[in-house]
Amino acid sequence: MSDVVKAPAVTYNSELVPVGARVQVKEELRRDGGTRIELRLRGLVGNRVSGAHVHTKPCGKLPTDAGPHYQDKAGPTQPSVNPEFANPRNEVWLDLPTNKDGSDR
Fold first, then answer.
1. pLDDT digits (tens, 9 = 90+) for 14-34
2. Contact, 53 vs 40, CB < 8 A?
3. pLDDT value of position 1
4. Domain ranges of the chain
């Protein structure tokens, strides 16, 4: 059984993610120690690919309030741009294509 946590969405670029757009995130901790993250989108700009990352802190008024990207193995300096640590195998990188209606499905 999973807990449902509702939080207000934060939009930093209302031209790409209009106020009123919806994002649903589901996290599943797997028995093998891995994590599965599912993201569903509604109301974004259509026919576009956006990227999403998991950050170390909650969203705030400024994008930098969210802290650096979460890293499974943290780099020695943060935020890390070293490709040894900043890569899709060590961070959560989601490329999100939307259909003509601005949804992921």
1. 888 888 888 888 888 899 988
2. no
3. 46
4. 22-97
**C-alpha of 75 from chain center:** 19
Mean pLDDT (the chain, rounded): 87
Alpha carbon of residue 62 to chain centroid: 16
C-alpha distance from residue 48 to each of 17, 25, 36, 44, 104 (Å): 11, 19, 24, 9, 10
Give the whole-angstrom CA distance, residue 48 versus residue 22: 16
**What pLDDT was estimated at residue 75?**
93
Spans of the chain, pLDDT less than 70: 1-4, 8-9
Q: What Cα–Cα distance (Å) separates residue 54 from each residue in 1, 22, 72, 89, 105?
A: 23, 17, 11, 13, 22
The answer to whether the CB of 21 falls within 8 A of the CB of 102 is yes
Tell which residue, 98, 97, 77, 95, has the closest CA to residue 86.
Answer: 77
For the whole prediction, is pTM greater than 0.85? Answer: no
69 by Cβ neighbours in 10 Å (0-12 / 13-18 / 19+) ranks as: buried
